[in-house]
Amino acid sequence: MEKKHSPSGLPFLHSDDFLRRSASKSIRTLDDDGSGDHVKPHIKEMDLFPTNNRSLSSSSFDVNNGLNLLSSTQGVSRTSTEKKPNTEMSVLKFELERLHEENRRLRSMVDQITRNYNELLGQLFMVVQTQALANNNQQLKDGGVNGMSTPIVPVQQLVDPRPPSYGYKRRELSASSPANNRMEAVSTEGDSRTVQVQGKRLSVVEDGIDEKSDQRWGSMADDQSKNEEQVSEVALRKARVSVRAISEVPMISDGCQWRKYGQKMAKGNPCPRAYYRCTMAVGCPVRKQVQRCAEDKSILITTYEATHNHPLPPAATAMAKTTSAAAAMLLSGSTTSKDGGVPPSSSYSLPYASTMATQSASPPFPTITLDLTQGPNPVHYIARPPPFPSPLHDGYPMSAPDKPSPLPEMQMVQQQQRTASMVETVKAAIASNPNFTAALAAAISTIVGAPPTQTNDGISATINGGVPGLPESPQLPQSCTTFSTN
DNA sequence: CGCGTTTGACCAGCGC
DNA sequence: GCGCTGGTCAAACGCG
């Protein structure tokens, strides 16, 4: 019988879990046969000392030979006391100390590489930003965007404070852990606070192998990082990512295997809402809801929740990264309070805002909606300051082209990381599903090169300075990507 | 027969 | 406290 999937009851693999499991596994490996390859997918630290592993294991093998041991550790103990009282133990201890020292040294190297990487990213961002601003100025001169100023996403809204690569594996986008990137069909979850956001705080995690890898940040970071990670984890579990796309098929193929576990008639929508659970791995917390839009039956609304805790095929990884990044953006604080913040204005009103307004209940979780139904150039992102103090948002608008940003370099770096992450996310979505190709291709163009759109508070901005080399495209005054929170 | 879907029932949260 | 709604469960059912 299947139990409820309460967040606390799920076998989530946290970063600490990974490390502990890997560490314990490595210890067992050393005692057993010395093959540390098993833990490579989790921790490459094992790769740092292959010879040492062999030396330790071979020692165990040597002392165990012919002793009919109950365990390798017993064999080591008896051998040490009977044959080589202290010398071998001392050698082993010395070897262990040496390994620890080497481990520290290698970690230091990783830190240094990370810093260099961030520095280079910052330089790259500055170049791209300059080009984008110049482009915006040119477009304004040409009469673009109603003569509005050109707000740019505040750096801190785009940036994840954490380093782009702190772990042992290549990192990619994910909101993972996301534990819950919850997505909600906007058409059925009205009255939610809605914003249009240019990515804020895109979490950079690894490879999509473990969507909970977001938590791995704490594995090598300090306690503060761990705390932030925990906070992020909790928030992401409540986040949803909704994708609106025109599709005739009952369910958009996203590369994952799903099992339908329920169907309900949702209020305000004649079309039933189907509930699916990821079946690619036992205990995977990811679920999704599929429902057709009440106003336009051709629009399929797919709402994702949580993050996969298992390896994904490339197509599924791409989609997972998309939703995860979107959820991370949402939860990073780029939200607008319907009661406390500035209400959405016409400058960035949602194409389906009226639908949302018909609903009386706010969605229980923050929701980000990726609207892929708005034609060839559907997406523009508008960031708004969070209604609460956020370390990611200190109120520095980068909207003045002629005014250099007062942000520190690190924030620049982080913004660059987020911008690149967002682009990668959209590209991943395109790769994962042909149905999204047209809309998302336009999205990429918009993100990278579109003239910014002003919001009514003057702080929000479109993403600028995206990935070099991608084509520019004019921006429609219509929003496609929205973020709604409650 | 196994697996996935269907569908009514159940539960929890929320507003009145 | 009651009703509404969203979300989930699990037995029944269908299909290959």
Secondary-structure map:
Blueprint: H1 15-32, H2 50-64, H3 72-82, H4 87-141, H5 155-158, E1 171-173, E2 181-182, E3 193-195, E4 204-206, H6 217-220, H7 223-237, E5 239-246, E6 258-265, E7 272-278, E8 287-292, E9 299-305, H8 314-331, H9 353-357, E10 367-371, H10 409-432, H11 437-449, E11 481-485
Parallel strand pairs: 2-5, 5-10
Antiparallel strand pairs: 1-4, 3-11, 5-9, 6-7, 7-8, 8-9, 10-11
The structure holds a DNA duplex (16 and 16 nucleotides).
Describe the structure concisely for a colleague.
By secondary structure, the protein is α+β, with helices and mostly antiparallel strands. It is built from eleven helices and eleven strands.
Question: Which keywords apply here?
Answer:
486 residues; alpha+beta; N-terminal domain of TfIIb; nine-stranded mixed beta sheet; two-stranded antiparallel sheet; 11 strands; 37% helix; 12% strand; disordered N terminus; disordered C terminus; DNA-binding
Indicate the overall shape. Answer: globular
Radius of gyration, whole Å: 25 Å
Helix percent reads: 25-40%
User: What count of helical segments does DSSP give?
Assistant: 11
Question: How much beta, percentage-wise?
Answer: 5-15%
Unreliable residue stretches: 1-82, 143-237, 334-363, 375-413, 428-486
Describe what you observe in this structure.
It is found in: Nucleus. This is Class II chitinase. One of its GO terms (molecular function) is DNA-binding transcription factor activity. The structure is a single chain. This protein has eleven helices and eleven strands. By secondary structure, the chain is of the alpha+beta class. Among the domains are: 40 residues; 114 residues, WRKY domain (N-terminal domain of TfIIb). Helix 2 crosses helix 3 and helix 8 packs across helix 10. The chain is globular, with a radius of gyration of 25 Å. The protein binds a DNA duplex (16 and 16 nucleotides) through strand 6.
